[in-house]
Amino acid sequence: MVSKFRSPDNKVLLVLFLGVLMGALDIAIVGPALTPIKDYFGAASRDMTWVFSIYILMNLVGTPIIAKLSDMNGRKKMYIASILLFSAGSLVVASAPSLSIVILGRAIQGFGAGGIFPVASAVIGDMFPPEKRGRALGLIGAVFGIAFIVGPVVGGVLLMISWQAIFLVNLPIAVLLLYLAVKYIPSSSPRKKVPFDWAGMIVLSIMLGSFVFGVNQLDTTDLISSIVSTKVLPYLVASILLLFFLIAIEKRSVNPIITPILFGSRQLKISHTLAFGAGFCEVSLVYLPMLAVASFSISPSGSSFMLIPSVLALSVGAPTFGRLLDKIGSKKVINFGTACLTVGMLLLAAFVSNWTMFFISTVIVGFGLSALLGAPIRYILLNETNEQHRGSAQGLMTIFTSTGQLISAAVIGAIIGSATNPVAGFSTAYLIIGVFSLALVLVSTRLKPK
Predict the structure, then answer these.
(1) CA distance 96 to 93
(2) Fewest C-beta atoms under 10 Å: which of 70, 96, 97, 137?
(3) What distance in Å separates the CA atoms of residue 321 and residue 325, rounded to the nearest whole number?
(4) For 265, what's the count of Cα atoms within 13 Å in the CB-facing half-sphere?
């Protein structure tokens, strides 16, 4: 594809915004449906974990593949393909006669959703000059905060109809999106045809699958024994060995799915580290309702509302930091974000039983995450890569973020599960995340100035 900036169009931004919102909402509203799905099929509670796990796995696998295909075949085609896959998966889930088919549908959904955000970010890189990318990325990044505010409410309303309605609602949205995408997203000339990296795709898929499966089998109440068990260790070892095998394959490939050039500069290496760290810290939000139940004796149903301050901060912070990127550059924004994360996490660790400090610290954490998860890291990647590798770079960032999330969930779960006093366990977990965030502050100082 020939790299040149096209006239940015608010209609294109709207199409990208709605696509990312559809994928993000599906994460936020599916939680309330788990119990009705379990009761509907008479499934075991342990089997229900696969409704989430298979989505994460296929999302992780689909991201680099669709991102690479968007570099080869054009953004528009792959954005439309991602929406079609996601909506097809939604239809499979809603019409499923058994839990196995539900899980199959979630796998299709996850694979399709894996392409929506990276391809949307790459479209912004193609259309906007560097000085205007931050604002556009900030608007897209704010989608996740909006989804987590609106999602539980939408889910509750749709559940009054049926659990199938939660998935069927994606279909009319997808039809509208397909129409808008065909009409407004500009077509781009595909690059000269080169062989697709099938060997890299297969090894990458097996490697990520082994890693996700192994992590999901961890028993967080006895982490060390669990790691060395036959349910976990073989899969983790296999994923490590396959990583070295993948590196060897990609170095020899004429069109690698994970391009070695994406690790070439210091700026890119720091971005990948920050993406991993952002994912690691993001999981802390998931445990805030549990902390509220343990510390303040709130009911489980009411504890989810304790996320509202941090999610509101994330929703406001994402577009704000996006605009600041264009004015002051990524280094200052990320320095501020990692500092907020550090302060917020350490305050949470120190005042786990104080209502006022709980809300103050979660707002600070929300602002910190919005300076990492939304636009800033993607902004660096867009500016450090050319159009030929832009989609692949966005996909690689998602892999690092998801890996951080998986490892963090296992670590935090182990700390909380092994603590005799749950509140003390949460304090220790957030202290560790705070120290980890401090390390991210030091890493971010190595970014180059604007």
Answers:
(1) 5
(2) 97
(3) 6
(4) 12
pLDDT per residue as tens digits for the range 49-99: 678 778 877 888 888 888 888 888 888 889 899 999 999 999 999 999 999
User: How many Cβ atoms from other residues are within 10 Å of residue 420's Cβ?
Assistant: 6
Q: What CA–CA distances, in Å, run from 56 to 64, 198, 270? A: 13, 22, 24
What residue has token string 């079609």?
Answer: 84
pLDDT level of residue 2 (50, 70, 90 thresholds): very low
CA distances from 284 to 65, 143, 291 (A): 29, 19, 10
Nearest to 258, CA basis, from 379, 397, 124, 375: 397
Q: Which pair of structure tokens corresponds to residue 79?
A: 């954005």
Which residue blocks in 128-256 are alpha helix, DSSP H? 130-159, 164-168, 170-184, 198-216, 223-227, 233-252
Most confident of 171-180, 183-192, 223-232, 374-383: 171-180
CB-count exposure of residue 255 (10 Å: 0-12, 13-18, 19+): middle
Provide φ and ψ at 96, rounded to 5°: -65, 130
Q: Which helix (H) or strand (E) holds 392?
A: helix 390-418
Q: How confident is the model at residue 4 (pLDDT cuts 50, 70, 90)?
A: very low
Cα–Cα distance measured from residue 292 to residue 165, given in angstroms and rounded to the nearest whole number: 30
